[in-house]
Design goal:
single chain; about 240 residues; mainly alpha; Monooxygenase; two-stranded antiparallel ribbon; 9 helices; J domain-containing protein; chaperone; DnaJ_domain; protein-folding chaperone binding; coiled coil
Length: about 240
């Protein structure tokens, strides 16, 4: 296998060579987030209960009558969790905000309320969960920010260089050849370190508004996460054997 990779590496230096990455890209596509539509500032909607157009507490509760409003599926996740729309987030503060919001809309608090508020409670709870999971994960947070900018992830390997793709093939081979949990754990530790470094790169690219750099880094993260998933599967197979 290593001799085959060496052939690919040599061929990769030729001018017209394009490494065979279709299957790999199909494998990592599962990390793609659903499309996010950016939205313009809207006028305040009228409360469904008191019909007043007042500011909403925590973007969810009428400040006049206190009724829980219908879920706003277009709300910016950062606004919902009271964070600035930037890539760096403080995990502890994010978790604290998430828990506070979930306490506000917990279905148990609305068991004696109207059926509309009970439905709204479940809908808001689901959206808060989705927002938290998106912002808590660097790759998902990066893709969400990119989509808020109206940009999409590349559908091919144009954002990657050939050397990186060859390195990914080697890493996949190392996973295939690993024979025990210790070897897999060592490979996973390397991936964790590389993912942390890419997270730092994302911070720099977002601060510089370098969206091409953001796209390339996110694609690299997808490849690493795909290999990490293969490691977990291999670990589970070793446990079952």
């Amino acid at each position: 296998m290593r001799s085959v990779i060496q052939v690919f590496r040599t061929a990769g230096r030729s001018r017209n060579y394009v490494p065979p990455s279709r299957n790999v890209l199909e494998h990592v596509n599962r990390f793609r987030l659903p499309q996010v539509q950016s939205f313009a500032t809207k006028s305040l909607p009228a409360c469904w209960n008191c019909q007043k157009k007042s500011e909403l507490k925590n973007n969810m509760i009428c400040s006049d009558c206190g009724h829980l409003q219908d879920v706003d599926a277009t709300i910016n996740y950062f606004d919902l969790l009271s964070f600035p729309t930037k890539f760096p987030v403080e995990p502890q503060k994010l978790t604290k905000s998430f828990r506070q919001l979930q306490t506000l809309v917990h279905p148990d608090k609305f068991s004696n309320k109207t059926s509309r508020e009970q439905t709204n409670s479940a809908d808001w709870s689901s959206l808060i969960n989705k927002a938290y999971k998106t912002l808590a994960t660097p790759i998902d947070r990066g893709q969400y920010l990119l989509q808020l900018e109206g940009e999409e992830m590349p559908q091919d390997n144009s954002a990657l260089n050939k050397e990186f793709l060859m390195t990914m093939m080697e890493k996949n081979e190392e996973v295939e050849e690993a024979e025990d949990r210790e070897a897999l754990e060592a490979l996973n530790a390397e991936l964790i370190k590389e993912l942390e470094e890419l997270t730092q790169k994302l911070t720099s690219f977002f601060e510089a508004k370098d969206l091409q750099g953001v796209k390339g880094t996110l694609v690299e993260m997808k490849y690493l996460l795909s290999i990490q998933s293969s490691i977990k599967q291999k670990q589970q197979s070793l446990l079952g054997s």
